[in-house]
Input
Amino acid sequence: MIEVYYAEDDEIIAKSVKEYLEQKNCKVTIFGAITDIKKALISHLPAVILLDWNMPDGHGNELCRWIRDRWDDLPVIYLTVRGDSGDIVSGFQNGADDYVVKPFDLAVLHSRILALLRRAKGAEAMKLFCDDLMLDKEKAAVYYQQQEVIVSQLEYQLLQLLLENKGKTVTRRQLLEQIWDNSGNYVNDNTLTVSMKRLREKLHHPLCLKTIRSFGYRMEDTK
Output
């Protein structure tokens, strides 16, 4: 499912876009003000943002600039009315990835979203997400609600293995074999329990990290 944040103050347009995209396996959250979408972005990032130019509390290019100051590769599609070429130029100067002119065909909008996500796929492969957690493989860093969390090398490897298998249960034996035994270090089962406890604490006990009792662990989105 593709998660979409949509900044749009026209309720009729917003409703039609939401209904269509949700038929196409998207989850759409509508924000009627720039202030509201900013608050949402601070705690959670969607797959793509649809950004209208005219908002009650500001312009789309201001929000786009704010987004780019924080997240370089968050996909943004700029929505503009026909003839506003200055809006399009401004949007791209501030980091929008694509634009769609109003009134637009909903099928065209959906195809633009898919095309943009395909282009971003390579970059996304370096980042693993689950709820408010992100693991950046390029930086070898872990983030909770956009704030970096300092973890040990072992904790990083544990989280990476679980995130790479998101939605699947990873057994305790698999974790022990792939993380410890591959390094030539034999440990007992209790070491895994202690390591996982410390990782949970550092990550603020995330609901998406589930324990499958006496079997293993599973990362699973809850939002």
Q: What stands out?
A: The mean pLDDT is 86. The longest strand covers residues 2-7. Residues 2-124 form a domain with the Rossmann fold fold (CATH 3.40.50.2300). Residues 106-124 form the longest helix (19 residues).
